[in-house]
Amino acid sequence: MAELRIENLSIVLGNDTILDSVSFAIDKGEVFGLVGESGSGKSTVLKCISGLYAHWRGVIAVGGEDVSGLSRTARSLKIQMVFQDPYGSLHPQKTVASQLTEPLRIHRRPVEPKILVEALEMVGLSAAFLHRFPHQISGGQRQRVVIARSLLLEPDILLLDEPTSALDVSVQAEILNLLCDLRERLGLTYLLVSHDLAVVAHMCPQIAVMRQGKILEMITRDILNEERQAAHPYTQGLIVASKGYDRTLAHAMHDGELF
Amino acid sequence: MSLIPDNSQNEASEAPLFSVRDLNVSFGTYQGAVHAVRGVSFDVGREKVAIVGESGSGKSTLGRAILRLLPRFAKVNATSMRFQGQDLLGASEKSIRAIRGKRISMILQDPKFSLNPVVSVGRQIAEAYSAHNMASGSAAKKRAIEMLETVRIRNPAQVFDMYPHELSGGMGQRVMIAMMLAPGPEFLIADEPTSALDVTVRLQVLAVLDDLVSERGLGLLFITHDLNLVRSFCDRVLIMYAGRVVETLAASDLDMASHPYTRGLLASLPRVDHPTDRLETLKRDPAWLE
């Protein structure tokens, strides 16, 4: 049975249909990727799943259980989210220890230093970081703290919204490796959103290409190696464009031959 | 459009468009001086030269130092810095103002923060033009519309009256480029001009820059962190680490890089065409700082 199942997910914000019948399913322990350009609705999918939007229509089920019946606290035990900008998702005036304590406090769990240190060690940081403030640590370390915090409640599913796009490439490699290790160790299921096709292809065997609130097509990682196999010309263009600059493609796009 | 200098003809002058030798920039802080750029030397001709480095490597500081845009407490010195034979180091503030914006322009990363939100984009472009040229209002407007055409905006007259919030990111960045081009510069410094853009939009913005270099003979200094992009877009690459240029190569030879930092950076990139299970991580060697 699918760990996360999305069926006909739709949402209207204002007068605009932001998501239009999005459906996909992820098996336990799998990594599923969503790619698309800004405004394609990929982050909105995550916001619906995590409960940041409540008025969506359709079905979101975790482990067979419909999430719309779950309370916010019950849902947060199953699903956690990691955002793009680690500086924005950590409170600037609270220490790492206090940020890590927060989910435990909300869920009325015992707060022991041992638990916090274990959480930090899991993401490759030491107990020395507990008493630092976000501005005293680097971007990559901040993102590690955010990941540690999201894992404290032992969720089944991690929603990753552009987790490395604010980081340097060398740091990006470290975080992506960390995410791979954690998934293997803890049996996590990931839903990864990124505009960077290379990152998604590295992490995810199964990828959905989104455009204008719809899933345009589902592709597998292998297709990316032989670019012309993608069915839709938009996907083909996306693949070529992510490989670097191509003068002919740029001119073809401008002349409206593509897209 | 004739006002953009067509430099492709006069390549007889062998001297590079821009050249700098042993540039150093340091900032005085309470904890002592921070040496952000250390002994950087390079030339830019009518070509696309990339400066690649991670955050904090000094690449943006370098771009700003050229245009004297750094705060007053920054100490900038070099043995020479010349633009078309003219000395930029000893130049008075007044003569720098005649060069900055008019002959050397800078394109910044995010159009959202670089455009004035309450002035229509056309007027902003026209303003950039009239700041450097005696021109009537209608001439400046005509020029602005021409520039919007140059950056391949489809309906320039309509876009002229639009405000920045009505434009998409890619359009905004093309408007920025149009603004920088209006005075007719010969040398463009582009600081991460496409980092905020989607890949397909990025391609179109790059095509505009590419045409300017290949058809009009501008020089382009392209500051970026994106090695994959540089490989396919630029002619030459300078790799910066901790304020130094550690390696200079032709973009096509990027895979033959010899410096361990460059090799580490390349290996840590996920590649669409070369999937791996684990990415290489960079092990920084203190010896690179020597």
Instruction: Let me know the largest β-sheet of chain B.
Output: 6 strands, mixed
What multimeric state do the chains show?
heterodimer
Mean pLDDT of chain B: 88
Measured distance between first and last alpha carbons of chain A: 37 Å
Helix/sheet category of chain A = alpha/beta
Largest interface: A-B, 38 and 37 residues
Number of helices of chain B: 10
**What is the H-and-E element order of chain B?**
EEEHEEEHEHHHHHEHEHEEH
Mean pLDDT of chain A: 90
SS class of chain B? alpha/beta
Strand order of the largest sheet of chain B: 7-8-9-3-10-11
Q: Write down how many β-strands of chain B occur, each being a DSSP E stretch of 2 or more residues.
A: 11
Shape of chain A: globular
Rg value of chain A: 19 Å
Rg calculated over all Cα atoms of chain B = 19 Å
Helix content of chain A: 25-40%
Which terms would index this structure?
heterodimer, A: 259 residues, alpha/beta, 6-stranded mixed beta sheet, 4-stranded antiparallel beta sheet, 10 helices, 38% helix, B: 290 residues, 5-stranded antiparallel beta sheet, 23% strand, globular
General description of the model:
The complex is a heterodimer of chains A (259) and B (290). By secondary structure, chain A is an alpha/beta fold. Chain A has helices at 42-50, 72-78, 96-106, 113-122, 139-151, 169-186, 197-203, 221-225, 233-242, 247-254, and strands spanning 4-13, 16-26, 31-35, 57-62, 65-66, 79-82, 157-161, 189-194, 206-211, 214-220. Chain A has ten helices and ten strands. Chain A starts with a strand and ends in a 5-residue tail after the last helix. Chain B is 33% helix and 23% strand. Chain B has ten helices and eleven strands. In chain B, α8 (199-216) links the parallel β8 (187-191) and β9 (219-224). Chain B starts with 17 loop residues before the first strand and ends in a 23-residue tail after the last helix. Mean pLDDT of chain B is 88; it is low at 9-13. Chains A and B meet through α6, α7, α8, α9 and α10 of A and α8 and α9 of B.
